[in-house]
Amino acid sequence: MAMVSCAEYNVSDDPSLRLSFSQDTLSFDTVFTEQGSATLQMKIYNSNPCALLIDRIWLEEGKAFRVNIDGEPQLDKLTRLQINGGDSLYVFVRVEIDPTNENNPVLVSDNLFFHLANNATQQVRLEAYGQDVVRVRPPVGETRTQMRSFTFRAEKPYLIYDTLLIGGMTRIEAGTTIYMHNGACIYALGDVIAEGSLDQPITIRGDRLDRLFDSVPYAYAGGSWNGIYLQANSVHNYSFSYVDILSGNVGLYCIGTNTSALPQLKMDGCRIHNHTQYGLALINTNAKVTNTEISNCASYCVYCAGGNHEFIHSTIASYFNYTSVRIQSVAKEDAAAVFIDNLSKTPPMTNTSFYNSIITGYLSNQLVVATPFDQYYPGVFLGNYLKTDTLRIPNANQNTYWQKTDTAKVFVNDFFKYKEYVYYDFRLDSLSPAIGIADSITALPYPTDRLNVSRALVRPDAGCYQHPW
Predict the structure, then answer these.
(1) Fewer CB atoms inside 10 Å of the end CB: C or N, the chain?
(2) Domains in the chain, number
(3) 210-213: long-range contacts, CB 8 A cutoff, minimum separation 24
(4) Same domain, 104 and 148
């Protein structure tokens, strides 16, 4: 008896034949309610030698998910759809979730069914988490929202559009998350109290929750929003504790416009990371920054010009775009991690000091002290690990300087390994040259590091992270 082969365009009614899918569950990252998601895609494969016929395609619930197959957005029109042997089809899916009236993300799911002419039925599960947010947007036709004062509460995240201008007190409760839309910024003209904790940090970041590609969330791409600007014409107080400011153009830009009454900034346990311009800019501002990480900025991680600034047990690490995959919209500038501008001839003069801190990066010189006479610069550098030439100022003592012959890593990971899903990690490597070099007396008021690891050793480590022996 002769065997008859099956041509790829001949439809088979063999009940054992099945389609295959690139994935059996299509999962979205968290989606803001009342706002459409990015489009995800998957593929339907017919790996059989014969064609298969799909009689019907439908969604079990049909409320949140929008499906487009083979260019057709209306599933009820997809009848008698033929997939030839060895062929495939693309499926595109979006999700739009109604408000859930819940503070925490809520799972929304559906099933996409395929009924074949051979009487087989197959399905793909669709899943997304919907998150209610408090939207802050300007009136129609305007580009900014103005408020006398404002309190960000932790119950629900906030989504900021365009510019939010706050004339009076700004408060941010512990545990609050603030999402910033493309180009959005916050201008605070009064006092600011943003006091999170290790267990309930405050997070300020871009609003893209999806991914550039599988191992790279949009949160890793800087410049997704503008920045936070603190502007004072008199003595204002800014208090930031455990605030993460991530992936904007500018992290925190503080400027005093009245040179005889400077604003006062205190930062503790914060993280300013991955910005396409500055991380922290202090202009005519007095500041005390402790147990804080400022990392990966295309320009200066820290810029100081005018005022008294103390950095104690802080890590400034400049490895912006130090990776084998280009995800940033700009390249790293030929700029040091820290620039201290003491060239002004008018008050207030610049007096910036670093104690028990780390200043490093992948360029050769990561610290610039721009001053007309090094021997008269008043700032203190004590117990630091520095990637720079030896400081020739009177108050630079007990510092450890990077050497070209150094082979030990400073940090756990200073290179983004996107294929291995390994992101930057600025905790200390077990052989780090920053271990055990800090000044013990200076460290006494700071018995624990940013992650609550004890510094109760004979000699504490430099930076905001203590190696946990």
Answers:
(1) N
(2) 2
(3) 210/28, 210/29, 210/37, 210/38, 211/29, 212/327
(4) no
